[in-house]
Model the fold of this input.
Amino acid sequence: MVQKRLIIIGGGASGFFCAVNAAARNPGLKITIVEKQSKVLQKIKVSGGGRCNVTNACTDNAVLIQKYPRGKAFLKKAFQQFSTTDTMDWFEKRGVRLKAEPDGRVFPVSNSSQTIIDCLVNEVSKHSIEVMLQTEIVMVEKHKGEFVLQTKSAHILKSDYLFVACGGFPKIEQYNWLKKLGHTVAIPVPSLFTFNMPKHPITELMGVVVENATLKIVGSKLSEQGPVLITHWGLSGPAVLRLSAWGAMELAAKNYEFAILVNWLSTNENDLRTQWNALRNKQGHLQMKSRNPFGLPNRLWDFLLLVSEINPEIRWAELPSKQQNKLITLLTTHEFTVKGKTTFKEEFVTSGGINLEEIDAETMQSKLVEGLYFGGEILNIDGITGGFNFQNAWTCGFIAAKQFGTN
Done:
């Protein structure tokens, strides 16, 4: 019997996971991973600050799917086949010890993404899977039940099955080779980006972290709470990245120019005003600069006093009502104008991609082209930070790997 061939486009998490699981299930399948870059698994390498946020410890799928701004219904079915628990079990069985941090993010105990890379590369080697680097696919056609792929260098590859896991593209034109197969694409826009506030004085506080702030987009229902990092270009940190994911389409429509309100305390203004007299009486003899009762970083507190036109030497009991009101407003509704975004190439995430209505969530197979499968970020699925995008990649890859026929 003629040996069946599987080509996987994309040497990232989903592509590798599909390859090694397909090979384990079907030793007779000839598998080739095609990667346009000179290295594989680069997003794994840089994720989580080089530690690789493998997945999330959330085991309740109903809760898990709420972490995806796009793709909930699709993933509800998919996660029934391969969940976060399955991911952790898979790596643990291959000698990768994992740990869950208090916020639910799961990392290798080694705190090194290389541990995950080594595991996947070893599996590829064990199953004799071919990896072709610096090979960009520019055209895919199907003739007489066979996929014919043309590379940028005009080389021709052929396969019986095709799994597309090349990640999301930032420009709609980059999907043209897939659109020619009949698929439609939700317009891609960036997700998971930071907010730029050019030349705003607060950027001089770069490096300051507020552990629990609340951000709200003015004129929108978009809001998020959590750690915020002040950078030399604006605001970043988990709360900002999550907000950018939920607001990806809306903020793109605004051309990334909008106003945000930051509540540095995550306490509403009325409650703070109610508590203020007690705070003032308790700290009346202290200078405003000496200590803030809110646990804010000192550099931020000094900045807020400056913007409120408060003499840092003044005592709490002597604080004029005008400056007091201004400080309370800044603490709870500090308004900033955002002009632009910053994304990081290696960790770039898109909302948009192949429309999910055209993909079978039970198999990852195209409903339009038999033998064509999709996985990971090329689909119109994206999650917030916390290991959710990798979980989508593992799940898609594993499900697709179960579909390929024997030789």
About this structure: The radius of gyration is 25 Å.
